[in-house]
Amino acid sequence: MRINPETVERIKHAADIVEVVGDFVSLKKKGANYSACCPFHNEKTPSFNVNPSRQIYKCFGCGAAGDSIKFVMDIDGIGYGEALRYLAGKYNIEIEEEELTDEETIRQNARESLYIILNFAKNYYQHQLHHSEEGQAIGLSYFRERGFSNEIRKKFELGYSLDNWDSFSREALAKGYSAEVLEKAGLLIHKEGSQTAGYDRFRGRVIFPIHNIAGKTIAFGARILKSDKNQPKYLNSPETEVYHKSEVLYGIYQAKNAIRQLEHCYLVEGYTDVISLHQAGIENVVASSGTSLTVEQIRLIGRFTPNITILYDGDMAGIKAALRGLDLVLEEGLNVNIVLFPDNEDPDSYVRKVGAEAFKAHLKKASKDFITFKTEILLQDAGNDPFRLAAVIQEVVNSIVKIPDAIKRQVFFHRISEMMRVDEQMLITEGNKLLRKQQSAKPADRQPRQSGAAPGGGPTTWTPCSAIARLPANPPPIRPFRKKLRRKRFSARNCITRKRHSCACS
Ligand SMILES: [Zn+2]
C-alpha cells in the first residue's frame, strides 16, 4: 500500500513547521521568524531559521533547508514514507492508502516479510544470549570479557546463536514463518534436493545485528568463539533483497546523530571496534565490515559529514589497505585523515588498554591528512633512489588530482612541493595533464548526486547539501598558488553557503 495523495496533502497542511521543528530543537522567536542553533551542524551562534509564513526552514551555516517532511526525514535519517507516517501520527491523521500494482505489492510484501523475520531472529538471538545456559556461558562471558556493558549490548542488540543445526529454524517454523522466507533472509541454508527444510546459517556464534539507517535489522555478522579450522572466524548474512553489503555501514544507525553533531565520522574495520569506541563515549564511528570501502558507503557518510578519519591497525597490511581504499574517498570530495595505532593494537584493543581520554588524545595527535600520510609512507619506502622518488611524485600527484575541489588541490600541491623539495609548478603541470586525461576518459563519472537510495534499497531519500552535492562536474585544471584563481561559477554543483540559493540542498 502507498499513502494516497489526498492524505499526503492533509499531512502537509497540518504539519506546522514551527511545531515540527520545535519537537527537536528549542526555537527562539525573532521578529516574524524563529531561530536556533542548527541541529545539522555544530555551531555556537544560531544560523538555523524557521519561516512560518513560508513553512520552511533554512540554515545559513550549512545550507540545510526544506519543509516539515524534509526536516523529519533528515533529523531521523528516515525515508519519505516513514516521515509522512510520523507526521500523520503526530497530527492524528488517518492514513488512507491506495493499492499498489500487483508487482509492487509482491515486492513490498517480500521486503516486509524479510524485515519481520530478521527482527524475529534478532530477538531470538538476544534471548539466547541472556537466557540460555549456553548463551550465558559462552556468548555473554565473551562480551563481558570485552567489557561490553549491559547497556551497550542492548544498544547494539547483540545476541548468540546456539551451537546446533536447527534450533533457530525449528523455533521460527513452529511460529509459522515459512522455510522459503527464512532462506531468502539468509537465515536458513537449504541444500538442493535435500528432503529436510535445511539448517541454520549461524550456529555457535555471537551475533552482531546489522541495522539500516532507520534502525531496522537487515542482516547479521557472527563470530565463532571456539577454534575450528573449518569455520571462518566471521560469517555474515548473504546478500538479500534488503541487505546489500556494499551500501551498508555497521553502526550507522547508532552513530548518525553524533556524526551530524560533531561533523566528523571515524571509520574502523570491525564490529567490536565500533562497539568498544561507543562504550568509551566515542559515538561518531562506523565500520565498513565485511568489504573494503565502497563508493556507496562513502556517499552514505557524506550524507552526514564531509570529514572522515580512518582508524587503521598499525601493521603494514593495514597501512596498505588504507592507501588502496583512499583515492576513492578523495574522489567523493571528503576530507580524509588517517590515524594509525601502535603495533599489534587495533582501535578496540587500544581503547580498552589506555582508556577513553588517552585514546582521544592519540586520535588528535596521530591524525594526518591522507595526502601527507601517503607521501610520508611512500618516501620512506623510496629512500634516496631517484627513480623511486619520481614514481612517488607520480603516485602522489595522481591522488591529489582525485580531489574535486580546486582550492584543496592547490593547497596540497603547495605542501607536497615543500615536503618533497620539488618545484610546485612542475607538480601542477603534471597534475593538469592527468586531469585532462581523466576528463576525456570518463566524463560521466562525475555527475553530482542529488539523492541516493536508502541503504537496504529503501525508498529514495533526500541527500542534504553535503560535500557531495558541491562537487564540480569536471574538476577544472588549476594554476599555481600565486596566480589569480578563476572565479568559480555558482551552481547546484558547487553550492557553498549563500544567503539565497537553489541547489540540491534546498
Ligand atoms: Zn546548519
UniProtKB/TrEMBL annotation:
Annotated GO CC locations? cytoplasm; DNA-directed RNA polymerase complex; primosome complex
Which parts of the sequence are annotated with region: Disordered?
436-464
Cofactor details (free text): Binds 1 zinc ion per monomer.
ZnF CHC2-type residues are 38-62
Q: Which residues cross the membrane?
A: none
EC number(s) per entry:
2.7.7.101
One Gene Ontology biological process = DNA replication, synthesis of primer
Q: How does it assemble?
A: Monomer. Interacts with DnaB.
UniProt xrefs under NCBIfam families: dnaG
What is the role of the protein in this entry?
Answer: RNA polymerase that catalyzes the synthesis of short RNA molecules used as primers for DNA polymerase during DNA replication.
Q: What is known of its domains?
A: Contains an N-terminal zinc-binding domain, a central core domain that contains the primase activity, and a C-terminal DnaB-binding domain.
Protein name per Swiss-Prot or TrEMBL: DNA primase
Instruction: Name its species.
Output: Dyadobacter sp. 676
Taxonomic lineage of the native organism:
Bacteria, Pseudomonadati, Bacteroidota, Cytophagia, Cytophagales
